[in-house]
Amino acid sequence: MASAPSVIVIDAERLTATLAGDILRVLGFSPVIMSYSAEEGEGRLEREKPDIVMLDLECGGGRDGLDLVRRLRDAGASYNPLVPVIVMTAHSDIERVFAARDAGANEFLAKPFTPRAIFQRLAEVVERPRPFVVLPSFFGPDRRRSSRPFDGEDKRMTPAMPAPGVRVGGAGDAFLRELRKRASEGNLA
Description:
- The structure is a single chain.
- The protein is built from six helices and seven strands.
- The protein is α/β, with parallel strands linked by helices.
- The chain has a single domain (about 5-185), classed as 3-Layer(aba) Sandwich (Rossmann fold), CATH 3.40.50.2300.
- It has a five-stranded parallel sheet with strand order 2-1-3-4-5, sandwiched between helices. Strands 6-7 form a two-stranded antiparallel sheet.
- Residues about 165-170 have low confidence and may be disordered.
């Protein structure tokens, strides 16, 4: 298999983190780095510089997952402010979805999750990354999923930056072909 992107899973719930890690490994991601608190996760982010971050909103250690997302998006404090972030939570009310989006998360994953749901979120950040928006009050992936024309003034101060690539290349890359093959053969539920 072609070079796979690395993923860190930060979740205080060890069983859930282990399940997510196992699914990621079956899909071919490597290495899959496990962390069970925000503090430990932040240290491992800096040392190991993963290509994708999956974290729970309540990632343990008395810190909020949204705080960690905001720190990842801070160019002065982060190893990579463009790293794709998938936020997981068992509490998927609309307020939390909006809070994760507004903190700079790329995708939102409700628990309990299925292998298919993890695959779909990963496919979004790998194959269809959204451009980043730079505003005085926000830095992160464009909150709009589509580029439809609209009436009115575009209030973004700068044009969106091109989306950063996760280290696997385009849709024709061997890793992505293998990932799609595994997903289709595995009949992900």
